[in-house]
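Q: What does the predicted 3D structure of RNA polymerase sigma factor (Sigma-70 family) look like?
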Amino acid sequence: MIEVKGGRDIEVQSLINQVKKGNQHAFRLIVEHFQGYIFHVAYGILRNEKDAEDAAQDIFLKIFLSLPQYENQGFKTWITRIATNHAIDMKRKAYRKREEASISVYDDYQAPSNESVEKVFFREEHLALIRSRLDEIPASYRDVVYGFYILEKSYQELADGLNVQTKTIEMKLYRARKWMKENWKEDDFV
């Protein structure tokens, strides 16, 4: 039930049926009712207010475009799934952009004239190995491991960038190191 101006309660399914028939005002009522909820779902994943606001707009567009395929399977669950998937996709895209930017920095690297070609080759090979192994690390630790070890950011820089406390960064790095010790052999990196 959605309470609308004038104190009336309207069944969500009734609004969905109206939207499917072309009533855009009915969709506005759905948006007004669920916008706070969708924002919080997106914010819980993205941890950034502006990104969550942008995501909420995109999510409602996806909901509107997907409504013809909706088949009464629990509206709130259905929109939560759309919101969650969209926010995760946004987070992945942001991570890939950061990764591509850092890779381009390494690609543009010029060896000092006093450094041998072999040293440069082995360093690049080592970095490529580390980058490829980063994908094996659980996703919840990957950002902090990448930021700390590859981008050489401080705990505070990572906390500010991910919008979390420095203690959270310390905890994630501790758990990531523990995971790496349990899952990787030292010989893999020699």
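A (community wiki): The structure tokens above were generated from the sequence. The chain has a mean pLDDT of 81. Strands lie at 2-4, 8-10.
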